[in-house]
Each structure stands twice: as structure tokens, then as C-alpha cells.
Amino acid sequence: MNTVEGAIVLSAMTLVAAGAVSGFVTLAEHSTAQALARDAARAGALGEDARAYVNQRDSEARVQVSQERIGEVPIVRVTVSKDAPLKDVSAEAVVVAEPTE
């Protein structure tokens, strides 16, 4: 590749490969956020500290935990946000809280 066209093609291929890798990493971060939110909501429903659960597994993740009621049913809602190469990703999980009695 001694031509300008070859250099342009090589540059374009590099950009496409970098974009694809960034996309895959973003998808992986979203999957991780979903798993963290789900597991933290389950832990919170069992009476454990959901925020500490997330921070123990991923110290860079941002987490919001709320305990609410829908009618007479207590629920735990956990939202986990993470930074990713293409955009910030977040996931939410809602679990019915276990009875404390």
C-alpha cells in the first residue's frame, strides 16, 4: 500500500474496528449493570444493604436504591449506572421485598 488510497482505506478500517470494539465494550458494560442491579435488588429484598452490595462488586458504578410500596406490596428498586466508551449505561431492577416477620 504505497498510495494515498491505501492509506485512506487503512485509516477507515482502523476507525471501523475501533468503533466496533467500543460498541462491544458498551454492550458488556450494560450487561454488567443489568446483572448488578438484579443481584442488588434481590439482596435488598432479603434485607441486605443493596448499595454496599454494588459498591463491593464494582466501586465505579453509581447506584440508587429506593424502597417503595405498590398498593400493599413492598418493593425494592435499584438503578445502577456505569460509564461506557460510547455512552453512559444504566439498568433498573425491581423486586418484591421479603416479609420481615
TrEMBL record:
Keywords: Membrane, Transmembrane, Transmembrane helix. The chain crosses the membrane at residues 6-28. This is Secreted protein. It comes from Corynebacterium resistens (strain DSM 45100 / JCM 12819 / GTC 2026 / SICGH 158).
